[in-house]
User: What shape does this take?
Amino acid sequence: MRLEAVALHAVLLAGLAFPAAALPAAPGKIAGAYVPGEVLVQYKAGAAARSRTASLAAAGHALLATLDGRGLVRARVAPGQTVAQAITAYASDPAVEWAQPNFVYHVTAVPDDPGYPYLWGWKNTGQTVTAVATQPPGSPVPYATDNPGAAGADMGLEQAWDLITDCSGVVVAVIDSGVNYTHVDLAGNMWNGGAAFPNHGYNFVSGAASSDPMDRNGHGTHVAGTIGAVGNNAAGTVGVCWKASIMAVRVMDASGSGTTAAIVQGVNWAVDHGAKVLNMSLGGPGLDPAYSASITYAQGHDVVVVVAAGNEGSDNDATPSYPCNFTQPNLVCVAALDQAYQLATFSNWGASSVDVGAPGTNVVSTWPGDSIGDTLDAGWSGSTTTAAGGWGYFALSGGGSALVDPGAGFLTASYADGTDDRAWKSFDLSGATGAVLRFYATLDVASGDYFRVAWRTAAGDPFGAGTVVVNETGVNNFPTLVAATPLDISACAGTTTCTIGFQLATDASVNGKGVGVVDFSIGTVRPNAASYNTENGTSMATPAVAGLAAMVRAFNPGFTFADTVGAIKGGGRLAAALAGKTTTGMAVDAMGSLAFINPPTGLAATVH
Amino acid sequence: MATVPWKTAIAAGLGLALSACGGGSSSKSTPPPVTPTDHLVTISWTANREAGVNKAGGGYTVAIAGMAAIDVPYVTGAAAPTSTGVTLRTGTYTATVTAYAALDALGGATGSRSAPSQVLTIVVP
Assistant: This one.
């Protein structure tokens, strides 16, 4: 921890010695933190010990300690009396030189994680967020709007960290694409599943169910780091909670897709195994009774469920998005705010369906491994069956290069008839335990012609001896670039010759404009990864609130889900951009939620 | 058994109710004067679960309309008291309870207070 002498000290020092006669009338407020129920009293030099005893007795106070030999004592105030009232009472005591609160001094908790300055949502200094060193190629950052934003537009975590950094008593389940539980910034904060669940969770992805919830996508690992990347470990980033208990529940595959069956199983399993907060940064348009029932099941087990509003930039009241639009009282739906606390351009909203806002742009967090990119301008081997065919490189007007077919005349000409064009390249994935292939493509491939992607673990042409993972025909989005669904090529991980190939195989009939591939990368999963990435989305805002839910429950161990939801919604700070667009108009605020007090309930009177 | 029309039965019932309240028009006598008397009234509520309410500097305030607020501070043990006694004279009163703690939303100790509870009506005979 970096200890910072904060400006607060100066404030306290200025108010350190209140002359008794100058004290405010009770029940005045005292600036700064002090020990409740205690005062320090300085007796005049001439006041005998007997006078001090009488003075304390007259005030109804109890002597706790004599602090020096010059008349300074520490006393407990009378029951029901505030410290301000006690100090005021001493003003009329002729034996007293002055009285004051027993102030509390502390350092402001600032973690030593080197990535902390990126985390504007925790402390916004007006910093500009740039791509981090291990950023995968093609990541959609930075989010240009309001970067930099406004200093102070943040969750106020430093003040909260003065009170609590350890949320490990509250299990938070990340219902997502899994978590790289070996990441250097997460391993120490993973849920202890004992011998039954040695990998800190479970994998419910259809066809792959197992006790290993390793992340093949990255989304879940990013979410987990926002909740609880280990704090103050001089590495990477820091989560809302410095210490946490993160349960990895894998319900989405490498492409980021999951089924109702997997999600319901995951939610129920997490609830049954002790999770008290669920993070669900996922959603869809369909009203799903089974999904809703799982949220109700969580409610019945006193579990808070924090969900994302969605990234369509639309009104959820008009176009529902689930689970956000479910109405269970244990649900908190989160919109994304940018660095100026404006609603992010992509964020959904809803005056009656979305509850709060949280930081959701340029969010830096943990990532499952490094990414291996390619500039697509050298090193690709190729073959063609026609003189006019073949892949080639194409210089992009904005810089960079694309792998294209036709290799000559791309954009203006069509591809060749009756050709089989192939291009491939090997990549070193040694040490990786998982891999996902990502790229963007523009396609105009006529029906009967085929665009294919294949991989193999050895060098050489992967078509024929490898595994085909894309086989498209009759598709045209030309010239728009579309992100290909991430492809799980984990079976290729660990080799030095993971070979990726592209094929355009055509017949003799109608031709299209061809294929262009850009932003090629292979995202790896590596043991003990120390990788980070910057992402945008309500998916990224949601874990900030889930982390806060864990913090609030850890701070108040007796809290129910209703208490926790009340503190999150009621303890926020008003954000103009959320007025009329959320149920509360609030951006979440950590200190506000820790200090929030729910109204008493259950009043009754008995007349005797 | 003879059946009784619903209208008749309801009218009879209303008459009975009015008589019970001393409002029957057939009686010319003046009801006996009510002598105001003091009663001890215990007001209770469910314990708040905020840690700050249940330690030094925390507690509750009971507000009874027209009277000085009653402070019910944390004193010792695991929780602040959740009841208080008050002497009330014959009449109808409304009461609310707020909870408070030393911690404030800026991390200082100027204190926080909850919104009031739902209003409780107390009828003292």
Remarks:
- Residues 209 and 379 of chain A are 38 Å apart (CA to CA).
- The first helix of chain A runs from residue 7 to 14.
- Chain A has a mean pLDDT of 90.
- Chain A has three domains: 2-103, 116-142+166-369+532-572, 373-525.
